[in-house]
Amino acid sequence: MDATPPTREELCPFPLRQSIGFLLVRTALRLRLLGNTILQEAGEDLTVDQWGILNLLWESDGQTPVELARRADKDKPNVTRLLQILEDKGYVARQPDPKDRRSHRILLTEAGRAIKDRLLELGSTCHERACAGLSAQEVATLKDLLNRVYRNVF
């Protein structure tokens, strides 16, 4: 595979609707809308962002808000707001960190653990709809390319 990036001349003129940034944002917004629609149609009182925090806790329960923010690529105030909503809904609880009294650990409640399989199934439905018409290899390539672009812009 040729790894030579396009030249400046090949990129000009720079049509906005063909730029990587525009295409990524447009796609991300549609994916968020699709995910929220699937959750709503399934009768779940959750958003994609709340689902994402739960997903990170299903992978590793007992993280701090700072750890969750880093892993979710979100700022701490946003994660704090999401955690408050999830706590109000009874899916998570805060527990003082025994190693650092200034911090808390976020733990799944029984309700937070009980919805895991159902929400993962809805996530799979969203993924299948978003990737309809793509082969498994194309999906793997797309993920690889997106991760490479992400690393390039750091």
What do you see in this structure?
The chain is mainly alpha-helical. The protein folds into two domains: 19-44 and 115-154, no CATH class; 46-114, Winged helix-like DNA-binding domain superfamily/Winged helix DNA-binding domain (Arc Repressor Mutant, subunit A), CATH 1.10.10. It is built from eight helices and two strands; from the N terminus they run αααααββααα. The chain has helices spanning 8-11, 20-41, 48-59, 65-72, 76-88, 110-114, 116-130, 136-152, and strands spanning 92-97, 100-108. Strands 1-2 form a two-stranded antiparallel ribbon. A hairpin with a 2-residue loop joins β1 (92-97) and β2 (100-108). The longest helix is centred in the N-terminal third of the chain and has 22 residues, at 20-41. It starts with 7 loop residues before the first helix and ends with a helix.
Characteristics:
154 residues, mainly alpha, Arc Repressor Mutant, subunit A, 2 strands, 10% strand, MarR/SlyA-like, transcription regulation, transcription, Transcriptional regulator, MarR family, WH_DNA-bd_sf
Please summarize what this structure is.
By secondary structure, this protein is mainly α. The protein is built from eight helices and two strands. Strands 1-2 form a two-stranded antiparallel ribbon.
Describe how the helices and strands are arranged.
Elements: H1 8-11, H2 20-41, H3 48-59, H4 65-72, H5 76-88, E1 92-97, E2 100-108, H6 110-114, H7 116-130, H8 136-152
Antiparallel strand pairs: 1-2
Helix pairs in contact: 2-7, 3-5, 4-5
